[in-house]
Design brief:
about 15% strand, 12 helices, alpha/beta, about 425 residues, four-stranded mixed beta sheet, seven-stranded mixed beta sheet, binds pyridoxal-5'-phosphate, 17 strands
Amino acid sequence: MLEPHIAPPACVTEDAFAALMEITRRPPVVFVEGRGSWLTDQEGKKYLDFIQGWAVNCLGHCPTAIVSAIKSQAEQLLNCSPAYYNAPMIRLAELIARYSGLHRTFFTNSGAEAIEGAIKLARKWGQIHRGGAYEIVTMHHGFHGRTLAAMSASGKAQWEHLFEPKVRGFRKVRLNDIEQVERAITANTVAVMLEPIQGEAGVFVASDAFLRDLRALTKRHGILLILDEIQTGIGRTGTLFGFQHAGVEPDVMVLAKGLGGGIPLGALVAHKDACCFAYGDQGGTFNGNAFATAVGCAVLEEIAKPGFLAGVAEAGAHLAKRLTELSQQYQCGEVRGRGLLLALNLQSEIGPQVVGLALQRGLLINAPRTDTLRFMPALTVTRQEIDRMIAILGEVLKEFSIATECGFGRRPAETIPQLLRIHAEIAALP
Ligand SMILES: Cc1ncc(COP(=O)(O)O)c(C=O)c1O
């Protein structure tokens, strides 16, 4: 269904959307072009993009490095089947090994597929090294994707009774509670799996101390530590991988999103001692195709350039500072996260309405919870673009603070924009 308060562009009728399966509530905006931090819709209206495909377009929209890699690889070789080596596949695996300290990679087409691979690898490892143990300890509110096993591993409350029966073998504990993790480990446990920052849950950071304790605990129990770096990896937090803040090294790491910079590419990366797939255990038609892995090489080469990650940390610090100022001005709550994966607690369930008003004003932001906004701009975002985002968000929050002053704040949040319009009409009366 269309959002009632946003009219569809003149050339797009509601019927035009009917051939798409509705899997989410989309606003009636059709994007046709992207450059850096900016998107353009079919009407020519520009939007400042602080979602970037959900932290995917790490170099922004259509960056030269990726466009050139796509063009030259497309003219050379797209796909020769995963049954054969190709040059970009070998090069990207070598780059990931060099930068992560882990040894071997299996390429996938999405994050969830890489998570499935990690679960399978852990179960196989449990069969070989731990008497058939298969259980994986994961975190409440964690998010690992939308395949059945990835959903079962996730700790998203809304999914608890969805698509039953779930895949068995996941035991959930609280993030940052090492005692609870220890209590959950049994002879049947094969691994602990978590995100360094729970992005979808609303940007909750696994503390460095927790990650270090987990590393020691998993070593002591002889089980694997699996880190889901799908959202935090590839420079998002100001280091190439999220775990580098804590100075730990996982046995298995899962990548996607930023690795392809906007094209579908994921990776299951493991220490050589954890690699135990036999021929036929793992595979897939498109895995490691030359086209996608050539783009992955271009992304990693950009991010590894001197000064790039320092620039991400600097931009992240600026964004956090400006969000904190905004929060003080409009009595919002804490600013959480790391690098360019940040959240602002709104202290009120107005997230979806703020997102809607921001869209009308040409800003894309996301509300992973009704009381929280999440910011995941391109890693190349400029200070000026951050300041512009803050200015637009400030205007939106101002509208909501006017609503609160007028007593609208006690109403259901979805009625606020409508009440604001009435308020403005009354104010404009002679
Ligand atoms: C931490 C994390 N894990 C897994 C996934 C699933 O990745 P994909 O959507 O590519 O399957 C996501 C996607 O948002 C994610 O943020």
